[in-house]
Design brief:
This protein has about 210 residues and is mostly helical. The chain has one domain. Helices cover about 70% and strands about 0% of the residues. The chain has nine helices and no strands. The longest helix has 25 residues.
Amino acid sequence: MPTDMPPPTVPRHSILEDAQGLVVGTLLVALSVQILKSAGLVTGQIAGLSLVASYVSGFGFGPIFFALNLPFYWLALRRMGLAFTVKTFSAVALLSLFTELLPHVLTLGRVQPLAGSMLAGVAAGAGLLALFRHGASLGGVGIMALWLQDSRGIRAGWVQLGFDAVVFALAFAAIPPLTVLCSLAGAAVLNVIIATNHRRDRYIAR
């Protein structure tokens, strides 16, 4: 067999494919936020901090989430490049918008906390995978997690799980302990989904 064969061409997503990936991914995450808020739950990462802050302050999730992500764009631009930064900024802006609009068109009734937490984890995991595979994230810890995975080989899911531990420690001061424990189950589901499915050796289209 010849050994000087050129490497296979890596397919790239078109602009339209990237656009639909960002919309679908952020809609799925917005749905997960709606489920969490309906059950009074939290999650990890910057989204978790934003939920805790919204419960304590009374401000909406969207504006808080957008503001908390602003300091991380410098790292994104410096470490991940302009295209990643622009896509991530767009994803954060879309999620901030969708989480403000979704309650006006979707009202959830009673949500059992543990079931709601795990369903939210599945929805958010699927949404984040869509964003990662189209070269974006939801900012914050996601930026650091993807950079560490690409530069150090540390799985993004495990990085996010460590940050989540800090978020949930803060959550115990704001919401009932049983609610925090139910929320933790959903965050674990989310991070396992990311850790087991976000593999560049299995998905090479960009």
